[in-house]
Write a structure and sequence with these properties.
The chain is α+β, with helices and mostly antiparallel strands. Helices cover 39% and strands 11% of the residues. It has one domain. GO terms for molecular function: non-membrane spanning protein tyrosine kinase activity.
């Protein structure tokens, strides 16, 4: 997503859903070697496979989610929250793992 922010999401029951799909793209970045697959200063995020950075869009979305949303709401806390924010900042956590760990954190808060 090119323009990720709180306004692109809505609450539906107890779930957060993406409401604005205008900027969603599934086209992966072209590459010649793994080092072409980067976001900012973080290189070799995903492998270059058949001329495309396989999985770079997912990493780009994770980076956008962290920068525009999560770093503002996960500001207090140590331990698991600090570890998770560091992994998100380094783009070293998968979407599935992030989902699972956020659910665990929410359950601990209840």
């Amino acid at each position: 997503m090119a323009d990720m922010g709180p306004s692109q999401f809505v609450w539906v029951g107890d779930k957060v859903k993406l409401s604005d799909m205008d900027d969603v793209s599934s086209v992966e970045q072209a590459c010649a070697v793994d080092s072409d697959c980067y976001i900012g200063h973080i290189r070799n995020l995903t492998p270059c496979v058949d001329g495309v950075c396989r999985g770079l869009n997912a990493k780009h979305n994770m980076n956008g989610a962290f920068r525009r949303i999560f770093q503002h709401i996960l500001v207090h806390g140590g331990g698991e929250i600090l570890s998770l924010t560091q992994e998100m900042e380094n783009l070293s956590v998968s979407a599935a793992t992030l989902h699972s760990r956020l659910k665990q954190l929410l359950q601990q808060e209840r």
